[in-house]
């Protein structure tokens, strides 16, 4: 049972390293904005609409939370079992769809453009998470989770390996930038776009890998492990703040659910405890200083003393 903090500072916010102290607002607490979902995922902030969109995958819908009123409404149903979302540098919604096994863009007039649904003539698996680089290229992961059954998509046999893709923003050409990550999941760029972080969900235990960007910014190199989770830990989706700290959705199990925060040197510096496993998160609000957390059956938020990096 969710119980909000009755006093400040909120005991759900834990400082693991002194570097995290400056990011905690002593008079801000974790808030539960909404609940009643089956599996909340893929939050994305729309500042011009003062709203947050996120997916409720098994219910095949995208929901909308209004900042002014706190009202929750249905943005899109069916959503083709949409999972991760982001905005491109022109402000348009990009979505990963399990059901149709594709990445789409919602145009200003509401029409849908397919960014990619096949590679070398074969269907994608089930695009999961997505980010956009400053050169307008679109990067996304393609694990098989949406085709493993009928709960978050449609059961099917995979036709491609579980790749990480880059789609050129000018030509639309798709390339595999990482083909050796077993079931890639969440991904994000460092603020200066010199690094790409990727969750490897197929490893036991799970881990976060990090790559350097090539000089032309189009390829990945110098693959290495950034964080190795403990045997019961499960990183999922994440975003960076402007200082390069990685704020990662985390689970599973009592005492592990919530958000873990890692410094650029991979040191765990902070933790936000939630009563549910956090699948994904984003920064939003007028100053991009509010952390929105999609966690299992609920949506949570916390004001923090930093801002989200662009492109998330």
From TrEMBL:
Any Pfam family matching the protein: SGL
Domain SMP-30/Gluconolactonase/LRE-like region, first and last residues per copy: 39-296
Keyword Hydrolase: yes
Gene3D superfamilies: TolB, C-terminal domain
SUPFAM superfamilies per UniProt: Calcium-dependent phosphotriesterase
Keywords recorded for this protein, A-Z: Hydrolase
Stored InterPro entries: 6-blade_b-propeller_TolB-like (IPR011042), SGL (IPR013658), SMP-30 (IPR005511), SMP-30/CGR1_Lactonase (IPR051262)
Domain of life: Bacteria
UniProt entry tagged with the keyword Ubl conjugation: no
Protein's recorded name: SMP-30/gluconolactonase/LRE family protein
